[in-house]
Write a structure and sequence with these properties.
Layout lengths: L3 H17 L15 E4 L3 E2 L15 E6 L7 E5 L3 E5 L10 E2 L9 E6 L9 E5 L15 E4 L7 E3 L8 E9 L2 E9 L8 E5 L7 E2 L18 E3 L7 E5 L10 E5 L7 E2 L3 H6 L5 E8 L5 E7 L2 E8 L7 E2 L5 E3 L1 E3 L12 E4 L6 E5 L29 E5 L8 E3 L15 E6 L5 E5 L2 E5 L9 E3 L9 E7 L4 E6 L4 E4 L7 E5 L7 E3 L7 E7 L3 E8 L5 E5 L4 E2 L14 E3 L7 E4 L4 E4 L5 E6 L12 E5 L2 E9 L2 E5 L8 E2 L12 E7 L2 E9 L3 E4 L7 E2 L4 H4 L4 E9 L2 E8 L2 E6 L8 E2 L9 E7 L4 E6 L3 E6 L11
Parallel strand pairs: 2-36, 41-45
Antiparallel strand pairs: 1-60, 3-4, 4-5, 5-6, 7-8, 8-9, 9-10, 11-12, 12-13, 13-14, 15-16, 16-17, 17-18, 19-20, 20-21, 21-22, 23-24, 25-26, 26-27, 27-28, 29-30, 30-31, 31-32, 33-34, 34-35, 35-36, 37-38, 38-39, 39-40, 42-43, 43-44, 44-45, 46-47, 47-48, 48-49, 50-51, 51-52, 52-53, 54-55, 55-56, ...
């Protein structure tokens, strides 16, 4: 039974909260009503261990813990913005979103300004740190609040910080210092340490040349941290300085970043080699103690401690476990993003360090690879250790998870940052969200989820089951998740790991939907069966048998798939080597796109079947479009007149008019295109879209509504529509309350006249009754 009425009733309960959220003035409301958040918030049964419900939500890159209020935390989600909670010590953590309508919600760094004794002044650095190819929002510089996040001011130094990836920030009144690890234009003039002494009105590059000017040479800076007791003291590292006549190493400033001195030891410098360093992170304690973690080749290669503020250093044990062979904290070799370090607030000899994931027993060979491993892990969960410099070498490291806990608990994998709250509990962020380790100096504590109602999931592929009116999605880091009830933020994990592309067939068997899902590299590719009440009925595994002796397929990390729009038995799979078609839901497949690789990794540009021609098929291959209109097994051919051919702009999505298979619509990163004759000729529909809000276009849907047809496009910072009456070229924003985050997927439900959006960082959203445009006008 259709339950759209439940969605309509939910509007009344949600509208007040959405209007109250900082955003556009009411006089600036756009047509289409309010977007309603669908979650996940959280997903239960996720990739965590020993915790109630094993909750996950999505990647959180950075955390600030209020030094005097244990319940107050600020977090920066990878692509989900800044959030705040004041009840982090409760069992039902509630989060408030603070930056939804800012210019970007891709957060790379957060810092309290210690000159504000109330700790209400915070600076956020904008940077892309997604595990999905570093995709994200616009790199716009900094955001600053002086009232605990209620209001924010954008800072870009007169444009100096635009397009720079902020990896660290230090706020000291009018002095702002930032580290930049990469930039849109990766040149020495765009990276390194930058400093402002006028509140961000302008910035000067401090890391420049061979270092003669400031003591700090040019190069890549992975991190920037301050001393909690000496606000003028900062630490950073430089790599690739030798390319401009300088020296790689660890550097310290005692004048808030104006001048710098290299303080790393010869043993550290021997590891900091250009081209091999993956990451360098720091932690500064309250006892003049400093820790530096150096990673090369994707793995931790050195952990060092200084007890005198960086003047001298001692190497500490690198945490390892004997799982067939000695394995460190980065079995997945993902240290470039997944590395966290925190100094114990009371014991000057203890440091905590996190890597990527747990290894299997015998993962490197020597026997059957399996769980549990040597420390009791039964899943690819978090890999974290406590290291005590006061113990003898060889005995300093001990697990902070599993055998190092009371309940064999562990957070999600892929650690990103750690901090201590005012009660002395360890707060950790990772690709599953936010977690707390109580009593971290002993083995009697446990890990607890602080995810609460946080919604930070990075959805790259999303499908809407029109039978049960629920969403399911392939996500980065948190697998495939399914919404339990319509308009309900609680989801459940169907498959863990990194989620694959998704598709749904509601045509083949009335009363049953067939959902296609997988994890990375099309692993565990399954077809699951569901009824109208969203009850799971069973599953099978499509055999993917290649017919007629054709070539075996090779898989992409995210392998695009698509169900035919008029025949649910038909399926397209964009493998790494060829495009394959199936006429029996994946049991048998055959090549129709020889040597063609449909673009994956966050996009799935395939349009397949519409009224008048179930054989109509168009796919995006880098910046080109291939298609066919002849009956299968006709091969795909290049659409030679497509305007984007050779432009270097990736085709991001394709859709067919469901009522006319000859009309095909394409987006690439910068434009919208239409062919009304199956790709023979094309027109450009971009119109005023890029002048409204210049942005990367990522997704497209065709809305055949009761009041007329419209194109809808999802961009890096919003959703826009144009009607057929305007020639599909007069664009305006659709709906209100949607965060400024990349919109990676769109689905229109014609039966209920609603649109669903999947976002890279804020989960799924629904806009109901779009044709009558609840606020501001109609389509």
């Amino acid at each position: 039974m259709k339950t759209v009425s439940a969605a309509r009733l939910f509007v009344a309960a949600s509208l007040a909260a959405l209007v109250a959220t900082p955003g556009p003035a009411l006089s600036q409301l756009s047509p289409g009503g309010f977007w309603l958040p669908q979650g996940p918030g959280p997903t239960i049964d996720g990739q965590a261990e020993g915790m109630e419900n094993n909750e996950v939500v999505g990647a959180v890159h950075t955390v600030l813990a209020h030094p005097h209020a244990a319940g107050t935390l600020y977090i920066g989600a990878v692509n989900g913005g800044v959030w705040k909670t004041t009840n982090a010590t409760s069992q039902n953590v509630k989060w408030t979103r603070l930056t939804d309508q800012q210019s970007s919600n891709s957060i790379g760094a957060l810092d309290f300004d210690p000159s504000d004794p109330a700790y209400k002044t915070i600076v956020a650095g904008i940077g892309r740190f997604s595990s999905l190819g570093s995709l994200g929002g616009a790199r716009t510089g900094l955001l600053r609040t002086t009232d605990g996040g209620a209001t924010w001011t954008a800072i870009n130094g007169g444009g100096t910080l635009v397009d720079k990836n902020i990896s660290g920030v230090a706020a000291r009144g009018n002095t702002l210092v930032v580290s930049v690890n990469t930039a849109l234009s990766f040149t020495f003039s765009n990276i390194g340490i930058w400093r402002s002494t006028n509140g961000g009105a302008s910035f000067q590059q401090i890391a420049t040349g061979n270092g003669a000017a400031t003591g700090l040479p040019g190069g890549v800076t992975h991190d920037l941290v301050g001393d909690p007791l000496r606000p003028n003291r900062l630490f950073t590292s430089i790599v690739f300085a030798d390319s401009v006549g300088g020296s790689n190493g660890v550097y310290r400033s005692d004048d808030t970043g104006a001048t710098w001195t290299r303080v790393s030891s010869p043993a550290m410098n021997a590891l900091i080699v250009s081209g091999t360093v993956s990451n360098i992170e720091f932690a500064v304690g309250r006892h003049n103690n400093v820790y530096a973690a150096i990673c090369t080749g994707g793995r931790l290669s050195g952990l060092f401690r200084s007890g005198d503020g960086g003047d001298t250093w001692t190497a500490l044990d690198i945490p390892r476990t004997l799982d067939g062979t000695l394995i460190g904290i980065h079995p997945g070799a993902q240290a470039s993003i997944h590395l966290s370090v925190a100094a114990d607030p009371t014991d000057p000899n203890i440091v905590y360090i996190g890597g990527d994931r747990q290894p299997l027993l015998n993962e490197s060979g020597g026997g059957p690879a399996s769980f549990p491993n040597s420390i009791g892990a039964r899943n690819f969960t978090g890999r974290l250790f406590r290291v005590n410099a006061a113990l003898p070498p060889g005995q300093q490291a001990y697990p902070l998870t599993h055998v190092g806990t009371a309940s064999n608990s562990a957070p999600h994998a892929d650690s990103r940052e750690m901090a201590f709250d005012a009660r002395g509990d360890l707060i950790e962020t990772d690709d599953g969200g936010v977690y707390k380790r109580v009593d971290p100096r002993s083995t009697t504590g446990d890990w607890l989820s602080l995810n609460g109602d946080l919604q930070s999931t990075e959805i790259h592929s999303m499908s809407y089951d029109t039978l049960s009116n629920t969403v399911f999605a392939g996500t980065q880091d948190t697998g495939v998740s399914v919404q339990l009830l319509p308009v309900n933020p609680l989801w459940e994990s169907l498959q863990q790991g990194d989620g694959g592309d998704t598709a749904v067939d509601v045509l083949t068997t009335p009363g049953t939907s067939f959902r296609f899902t997988s994890n990375q590299n099309l692993g565990n590719f399954v077809r699951t069966f569901w009824d109208a009440n969203n009850n799971f009925l069973g599953f099978n595994r499509p055999a993917l048998r290649v017919l007629n002796g054709g070539p075996a397929p090779t898989r992409q990390f995210v392998t695009p798939i698509a169900i035919n729009g008029v025949d649910g038995n038909r399926l397209i799979i964009g493998f790494n080597n060829h495009v394959y078609e199936s006429l029996d839901q994946g049991s048998n497949i055959f090549v129709i796109g020889n040597g063609l690789r449909v673009t994956g990794s966050g996009v799935d540009p395939i349009a397949y079947g519409a009224a008048g021609n179930p054989d109509a098929l168009f796919v995006g291959v880098t910046d080109r479009v291939f298609g066919r209109t002849a009956p299968t097994p006709a091969p795909l051919a290049l659409m030679a007149t497509f305007p984007g051919n050779g432009s270097g702009q990736t085709v991001t999505d394709i859709v067919l008019d469901p009522d006319d298979a000859t009309r095909v619509f394409v987006t690439n990163a910068v434009g919208v295109f239409m062919s009304a004759n199956s790709g023979a000729t094309w027109s450009i529909l971009t119109g005023n879209l890029q002048t409204l809000l210049p942005s990367t276009l990522r997704s497209i849907a065709y809305a055949a509504t009761p009041l007329g047809d419209a194109l809808v496009v999802g961009t890096q910072n919003g959703i826009f529509y144009a009607t057929e009456a305007s020639g599909f070229s007069a664009w305006q924003r659709l709906g209100n309350g949607l965060p400024v985050v990349p919109v990676t997927d769109l689905a229109y439900d014609r039966g209920d006249d609603l649109l669903v959006a999947g976002t890279l960082g804020r989960g799924a959203w629904k806009l109901i009754n779009i044709s009558t445009a609840a606020l501001g006008g109609g389509l």
